[in-house]
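Hi team, as promised in this morning's meeting, here are the two structures we talked about. I've kept the exact order from the run log so nobody has to guess. The first one is mostly here for context; it's the second one we should focus on when we meet again. Sequence first, then the predicted structure tokens.
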Amino acid sequence: MALGTDYAQQDCSLARALEVVGERWSLLIVRDAFYGVRRFNDFLVHLDIPRAVLTARLTALTEAGVLRKEAYQQSPPRYDYVLTDAGLDLWPPLHGLMRWGSLHVSGDEPSRTFHHAECGTRLDMTGGCPQCGVPHVPPADIEMRSRTAPARTDPVAAALAAPSRLLRPVRGAAGADAFAGGDDPGNS
């Protein structure tokens, strides 16, 4: 029997949320969108994801209202993928999952840490700033810092190695929009 793609028998908001972001790669795409990755080829190169899978996940996340497409070029049409308000609301659980993974799965300090940009204090487990007393620092006010040199050598990983605020656009492989085979096959 084939594994279903939804949780029809589960009357639960967690099950509904998993239908949107629970597919393999979906949360990594959302994570990279918070990091400032916006362009199809940058997701493709940084995640090392099959093109067809990336197209399907971006389409699903756009249809679910997590991402929206913004045209940055008309001919040929090319788009940035930007988090919507619903997508931005995924920051607290995403941050929590990253912290949980560092504590219980990786067994060491995370490769990236998140700090309140205003004061430089590292966010606590709930995404708050203990120094300023801000209970939930919004993503636009968070600075990401790399603790180690990136394991990957792609241009996006190199760009993300420098301290940067979340949501600020990162240009990597698609910086000049040059990629063999074109950019964003799901662009219509």
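And here is the second protein, the one for discussion:
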Amino acid sequence: MKKTLNKSFLVLILIAASVVSSCTNLSPEKTFEIAALNSNLLSRFGSKDINFKLESEPQIYDETQKKMVTSSYYDYFKFDIANLDTQFNRIKEINEDDDNREILQASKDLFAYAIAKEKEGYLPIAKMKDEKASPGQIQKAIADFDTTTQNEIDTKFTKLKNAAKAYAEKHNIDAEIGA
């Protein structure tokens, strides 16, 4: 009886392990979607993104009301960064192997850099807007942000684009990858 229970317990552990493993071992198409296509969230990184957000009405999702509500620009930018963090966590949850390592590492590198820089740069600019800084001061801060980040973000996007293109070709994924 004890031997049967031990075997049953072992089988249950193996089943549980395979279920957990299958949740993070995704198809090449799903891996491509999460690691490469989600980078579109960062396509306006820098002045384009900041200016777009500063021209929009600042809103965040209020869980208690189950709807978007007016907020400060600082909270609006923090809300967007939290959404990027969520996508970044989805990327980090994918089991890395020899097949997907290059695309996952390039995607993680891009998201980690963008999120860190948005926290360092976007949030102070949003605070300036909330505190009614002059448009000239805000535009100078945005220009300074671009000067210090644009080359690096472009390099990281190119690295991800190249990894995504190779991954898509290897797995026959029909994807148009920008120039």
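Starting points for discussion:
The two ends are 65 Å apart (CA to CA).
Confidence is low (pLDDT under 50) at residues 1-23.
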